[in-house]
Design brief:
Layout (H helix, E strand, L loop, with lengths): L1 H4 L38 H14 L14 H10 L29 H20 L8 H5 L5 H15 L11 H6 L11 H4 L17
């Protein structure tokens, strides 16, 4: 339900009613064999926010660990620190008019700027409403936050981080792929389509790093 309703918005008053459709960030995240120590983009307050949020959106259960266990926070941090976060492939010239979802990203902010403004606005809202910033309020209070532009973007990035190749920082140990029975990057499983129809397909997924 949280994933469907999202949470607060906060790009800025000028963008509060904008409609966006962010391009996928999987290819823009900075690939690496192992996650870098610490954060490249997020400052400590922003890191506390993003960690508490991805853990709230992806709680641990019998199938996978929580969001930080899966590295979704790392995936988003790398994407924002890279070319996608800087808006390198986005049209950033204006004029800034409200568009339709099919027209893609329609804000005068780079994705990195949107995150920075959105996190700050969310924390201000939480401090004013609950007397605490986002990572310090309870799960029920997080559910009450109104949905806006920022969390539309965040929702998409969380899903991308959940199911991306582990080389981009998310989907640690291929946990999400194993959960859904996705074989990974190899195209050698066509023969199994009929054999496993309506049956669980258990396989050790293959990632990009496994091919090098």
């Amino acid at each position: 339900e949280f994933l469907k309703s999202a949470v607060v918005g906060g790009a800025a008053a000028a963008t509060a009613t904008a409609s966006i459709g962010l391009p996928q960030t999987v290819q823009a995240a900075q690939p690496a064999g192992a996650p870098a120590a610490g954060y490249t983009f997020f400052n400590p307050d922003e890191a506390a926010f993003i960690e508490s949020l991805v853990d709230h959106m992806i709680p641990a259960d019998e199938l996978t660990g929580k969001g930080t266990d899966l590295g979704i926070n790392t995936f988003i941090d790398r994407a924002l620190a890279g070319s996608w976060g800087k808006g390198d492939r986005l049209y950033m010239q204006g004029p800034w008019k409200q568009g339709t979802p099919s027209q893609g990203y329609q804000l005068p902010l780079t994705p990195a700027d949107l995150y920075r403004a959105g996190i700050a606005a969310t924390n201000r809202y939480c401090a004013k409403t609950y007397g605490k910033v986002f990572d310090q309020i309870g799960a029920d209070q997080r559910q009450e936050l109104p949905a806006r532009v920022f969390f539309t973007a965040l929702y998409q990035n969380v899903i991308e981080g959940m199911f991306s190749d582990p080389i981009y920082g998310g989907n640690k140990n291929k946990a999400a792929w194993k959960m859904i029975g996705f074989p990974g990057v190899l195209e050698a499983h066509q023969r199994n389509i009929l054999n496993f129809k309506n049956k669980k397909f258990t396989v050790e997924p293959t990632g990009i790093a496994d091919m090098s």
